[in-house]
C-alpha cells in the first residue's frame, strides 16, 4: 500500500468560475482565483491565481488576463488546462524521482452538458490525470456540509457559486430533482458595475465591484443592527473622465442585486414544485441548506426563508463546502455510486 501511495497522488478539485480549490491529504493545498495572465505574443502563461488576479484590469497590450471558466463550465480549453497544470504544480510534495500518477475527483454543475463534461475531463487528463472522476456540485456540497446523502431522507441543497446556482433535492445517494441556473456571484458583480454606472455616473472595474459586494453586499434593504457602514468607492467619472470617490450603502446594493436574487428565488420555487411529496415532507422538517460564496451575501438566508416559509441553514465555511465534499468523495470512490468516470 505504501508503494501504491508513492506512485499515486490523489487530489480533489473544486473547479469554480471564481475560485479553484485543491485538497490533498484532507488539507487545502491550493486556494486561488480561477484566472491566468498570458503573454499575447508567445502564448506563455505569465501568472496564475492571485498573481494574475492582481493584474486583472491593469494589464498593457502585450498581456491579457483570462478567466477560463464561465457559468461554471470551461470556456477556454487551453487556458483551463494550463491553469489546472499550474495549480497542481503549486502543491508541495517534496522531491520525487518518479512523477506520480494523478487520481482526481472534480466537481461539476448539475446542469452541465455532455460536451462540457468532456471538456472538464479532457482538461484534467491533459494536465496529467490518469483517473478522473466527476461529482455534481450539489452532491459534493451536501457531503461537505455533513449530510448523509445515502439515507432515505430528502435534503435540499442550494450552492450559489461564481457562475451557477445549483438547487437540488438529494435522497438515497442520488439527485432526485434539480434546477441549475447561470445566475450567481458573477452576475451580482455585473449588477453592481451597471448600477454604479447608471445611478452614480461612475465607471468601476470588476475587482472594485467584487469588493463592493464583499463589503456592503446585501439581499435586503433593511438589515437593522447588522447593517455595514457605507463603503467608499473610487472610479472614473463618466461625465468628466476624472477619477472620483463616492460612498455607497448596503441598501443601494440590495436594489442593484434584486433582479438576480429574484431569479434564484424562482429557481428554488421551481425545484420545490418538482419535488415528490414524501421528500417535500422531509424538507419541511429539515429545511434548506445554503453553500457556496453567494450564500454569504447578507440577509440572503432571511430573504429565501421569507419566500419559501422554510428554515434556512448556512453551511459552516460555505466557500469550502463543495471542496470538502469532493475530498470526502475522493476517499470513498468505491462506496459512492454517483461518481462518474
Q: What report would you give on this structure?
A:
The chain folds into three domains: 2-140 and 322-331, 2-Layer Sandwich (Nucleotidyltransferase, domain 5); 153-182 and 263-321, ATPase, nucleotide binding domain (Nucleotidyltransferase, domain 5); 185-256, Actin, Chain A, domain 4, CATH 3.90.640. The chain is 38% helix and 28% strand. The chain is built from eleven helices and 18 strands. A five-stranded mixed sheet has the order 3-2-1-9-10, with helices on both faces. The chain has a five-stranded mixed sheet with strand order 13-12-11-17-18, with helices on both faces. Helix 5 crosses helix 11 and helix 6 packs across helix 7 (206-216). It starts with a helix and ends in a 10-residue tail after the last helix.
Structure described in brief:
The protein is an alpha+beta fold and 341 residues long. 38% of the residues lie in helices and 28% in strands.
Structure characteristics:
341 residues, flat, five-stranded mixed beta sheet, 18 strands, single chain, 38% helix, alpha+beta, Nucleotidyltransferase, domain 5, 11 helices, Actin, Chain A, domain 4
Q: Could you give the distance between the termini?
A: 23 Å
- Work out the number of β strands: 18
**H-E order:** HEEEEEHEEEHEHEHEEEHEHEEHHEHEH
CATH architecture of the largest domain: 2-Layer Sandwich
Q: Which strand order spans the largest sheet, edge to edge or round the barrel?
A: 3-2-1-9-10
Average per-residue pLDDT, rounded, comes to 90
Radius of gyration, taken over Cα atoms and rounded to an integer in Å:
21 Å
What's the number of domains? 3
Question: What best-fitting shape do the alpha-carbon axes yield?
Answer: flat
Share of residues in strands: 25-35%
CATH class of the largest domain: Alpha Beta
Q: What is the helical fraction, as a range of percent?
A: 25-40%
Weakly predicted, low-confidence segments: none
Amino acid at each position: 500500500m505504501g508503494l501504491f501511495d508513492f506512485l499515486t497522488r490523489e487530489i480533489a478539485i473544486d473547479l469554480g468560475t471564481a475560485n479553484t480549490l485543491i485538497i490533498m491529504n484532507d488539507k487545502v493545498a491550493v486556494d486561488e482565483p480561477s484566472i491566468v495572465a498570458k503573454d499575447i505574443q508567445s502564448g506563455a502563461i505569465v501568472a496564475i491565481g492571485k498573481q494574475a488576479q492582481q493584474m486583472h484590469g491593469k494589464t498593457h497590450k502585450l498581456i491579457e488576463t483570462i478567466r477560463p471558466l464561465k457559468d461554471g463550465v470551461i470556456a477556454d480549453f487551453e487556458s483551463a488546462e494550463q491553469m489546472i497544470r499550474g495549480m497542481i504544480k503549486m502543491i508541495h510534495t517534496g522531491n520525487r524521482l518518479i512523477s506520480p500518477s494523478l487520481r482526481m475527483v472534480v466537481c461539476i454543475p448539475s446542469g452541465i452538458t455532455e460536451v462540457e463534461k468532456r471538456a472538464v475531463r479532457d482538461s484534467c487528463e491533459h494536465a496529467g490525470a490518469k483517473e478522473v472522476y466527476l461529482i455534481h456540485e450539489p452532491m459534493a456540497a451536501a457531503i461537505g456540509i455533513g449530510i448523509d446523502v445515502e439515507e432515505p431522507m430528502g435534503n435540499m441543497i442550494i450552492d450559489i457559486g461564481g457562475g451557477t446556482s445549483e438547487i437540488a433535492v438529494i435522497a438515497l445517494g442520488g439527485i432526485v430533482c434539480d434546477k441549475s441556473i447561470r445566475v450567481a456571484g458573477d452576475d451580482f458583480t455585473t449588477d453592481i458595475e451597471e448600477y454604479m454606472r447608471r445611478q452614480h455616473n461612475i465607471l468601476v472595474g470588476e475587482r472594485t465591484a467584487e469588493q463592493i459586494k464583499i463589503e456592503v453586499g446585501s439581499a435586503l434593504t433593511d438589515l437593522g443592527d447588522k447593517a455595514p457602514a457605507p463603503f467608499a468607492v473610487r472610479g472614473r467619472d463618466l461625465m468628466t473622465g476624472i477619477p472620483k470617490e463616492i460612498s455607497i450603502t448596503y441598501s443601494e446594493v440590495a436594489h442593484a442585486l434584486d433582479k438576480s436574487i429574484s431569479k434564484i428565488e424562482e429557481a428554488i420555487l421551481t425545484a420545490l414544485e418538482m419535488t415528490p411529496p414524501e421528500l417535500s415532507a422531509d424538507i419541511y422538517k429539515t429545511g434548506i441548506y445554503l453553500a457556496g460564496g453567494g450564500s454569504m451575501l447578507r440577509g440572503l438566508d432571511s430573504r429565501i426563508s421569507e419566500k419559501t416559509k422554510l428554515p434556512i441553514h448556512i453551511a459552516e465555511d460555505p466557500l469550502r463546502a463543495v471542496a470538502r465534499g469532493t475530498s470526502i468523495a475522493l476517499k470513498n470512490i468505491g462506496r459512492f455510486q454517483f461518481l462518474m468516470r
